[in-house]
UniProtKB/TrEMBL annotation, chain A:
It is found in: Membrane. Residues 14-225 form the Cytochrome b/b6 N-terminal region profile domain. The keyword Membrane applies. This is Cytochrome b. It comes from Mesorhizobium denitrificans. Pfam families: Cytochrom_B_C (PF00032), Cytochrome_B (PF00033).
From TrEMBL, chain B:
This is Cytochrome c1. Binds 1 heme c group covalently per subunit. It comes from the Bacteria. Keywords: Heme, Iron, Membrane, Metal-binding, Signal, Transmembrane, Transmembrane helix. It comes from Mesorhizobium denitrificans. Residues 1-22 form the signal peptide.
Amino acid sequence: MSGGHSTYTPKTGIERWIDARMPLPRLVYDSFVAFPVPRNLNYAYTFGGILAIMLVVQIITGVVLVMHYASDTSLAFVSVEKIMRDVNWGWLLRYMHANGASFFFIAVYLHIFRGLYYGSYKAPRELLWILGCIIYLLMMATGFMGYVLPWGQMSGWGATVITGFFTAIPLVGTWLQQLLLGGFSVDNPTLTHFFSLHYLLPFVIAGVVVLHVWALHVVGQTNPTGIEIKSKTDTLPFTPYATVKDAFGMIVFLAVFAYFIFYIPNYLGHPDNYTQFNSLKTPAHIVPEWYFLPFYAILRAITFNIGPIDSKLGGVLAMFGAIAVLFFVPWLDTSKVRSAVYRPWYKLFFWIFGINAVFLGWLGSKPAEGWYIPAMQASTLYYFAFFLVIMPLLGLFETPKQLPNSITEAVLAKNKGAHAHPAGATAAPETKG
Amino acid sequence: MKKVLHGLAALSFLFAGSTAFAQEATHAANHEAEPTHFPIKAPREQSWSFAGPFGTYDKAQLQRGLKVYKEVCSACHSMHLVPFRMLEELGYNEAQVKAFAAEYTVQDGPNDDGEMFDRPGKPSDYFPSPFPNDQAAAAANGGAAPPDMSLLAKARGVTRGFPQFVVDIFTQYAEGGPDYIYSLLTGYDQTPPEGMEIAEGTHYNPYFINGKSLAMAPPLSDGQVTYDDGSPQTVDQYAHDIAAFLMWAAEPHMEERKQTGFSVMTFLLLFGVLVYLTKRKVWSNVEH
Ligand code: HEM
């Protein structure tokens, strides 16, 4: 919280006793009850809470899956099928975990886009943003390694292609690839390596999430106006206001999640993964999970050599660069104004960026042939131009709209006519209505 | 080993360039006669009793499908993830399943003398495979091993393309597998376009996902399997029944899944409404 003092008062003897020794209840109270949040947060701000829930869902279903899973190439595929067929509610666990990974990514993408739209990465939230980027990177590693565990055709071939990227790195590439694989090709050591790391990384993510939330509670949340909190009337206490709004957002999100689990559980998966991995039989098209597709398109967009960099290394650099660039966004955006609400041009380029990202994802599922190649190249160009050219230049040339003086003023202007009184969190019940 | 590795690496990275190249080469050489994208024809969508949010398996149909599997497909295709005990879900009682299992011979052992021995199947046994291993299966079938059938209905799905794949979310289309199997089994009667070359020992089928022809000869013919419930004994009916049966074999808990889904969705909806009303109430005294 932004420099506020703790308002926690232990009520019972036990609470006082604990508070004097390890003030955990105080921490929870200050972080999730009294924590002041801007009063004008919209539903785009509920994805943080949703992400926390998804991490918990993945960890719980994952831990139970491990009780029945066998990380051996001769058993892995069948053990997952036994989970689906013989373990009580095993089909539910497995479908929750597999679709849960996808919904985790849906939530993280919306969360990131929220940040890009409202300029959440700007000072003093650079570290908060970078911690978020680290979580995203760890999620990608976890998702990729998890996808290998059921040991289907896409598991094995996806791992072959993706670890193959590393060989493009000069000098250490091949060594690195073999270290990951535990050998020369995808085989039993690969599976055991990935299984171990797939179990480990979610807990690393949980650790970084703690740092992320800590940083958040130091600088406070942004809000759609992008103006910092100035007075008490700008904020509401987290509970009940944000709690109940987050709860509603979560239920809607979980309803969509449940729709996929119960009615179209294999929609987001690949049919080939229901065939056991066979290192002698290459599938017609090797495609990664949907959440990697934009990067897969960027990888394959580089079909030409750039000086000493051949197209293969170029593709790998572009792909990693596409993620790396996110880390520098706080310094690439030169605008003094935070929120896209007051930046007409940025808003336009932002939405083009969003559409372009979805289009890149679609291209990623297509073979690199015909018109898809120039489309991938054009789309990749815009992706990088958005961060490296548009962001720095717009800040210098764009004329932002008139900013309100405070969050309260913005809220009042929006609601003008409806109710005229700036009732705060402490408003008496008789004023509602 | 190194060579294989380099080959693999080259394969995975350069396929961007090479497919584009191969694509153009084949395009230049011939147009319609030699297609480059498979399947040549999209599967024909059928109506299935198990489709949709309230879909259930038609037990009579599954029993007929089991008969087709037992009398025809099991000569070549294994189904090693399905135990006999699961057949109770098709409406058979314990005694019937026991009798069904006992018709098969399974190898067991070693016994106290260290010998393997044959005995009649038990409900806890799995469907025995027709071939001892993949190599034997391939050798007996012109080089192509017949795939295991336990998951076949989920392991095949023809890409639907934009915008169909978006529509599929709302229509809950999840029957790509059975549609594919049905279309494949009934798709042998078509003649290849003039000029198309069909490899020796393979059979043209425009619905095959991996090429223009496959190693499996048309496995079904009218009247081949005798039905005792009066259903038509046609290839079309057989194909529907075996496809439905394979969907069940691949997804035996589908009914339970959809029923649970209904309770969960109803709960989330009601809970959602309550929380929404609470939220309105809580926020009604503040401007936001
Ligand atoms: C960051 C959270 C996590 C993500 C994004 C994630 C992602 C995935 C994915 C994509 C799969 C493949 C699903 C499939 O297609 O079948 C998978 C499988 C698996 N995961 Fe996770 N996972 C996470 C956490 C965990 C945890 C914490 C554990 C164990 C403690 C775990 C254990 C497993 C097991 C045993 C499998 C293989 C069974 C299966 O394929 O369904 N996961 N995971």
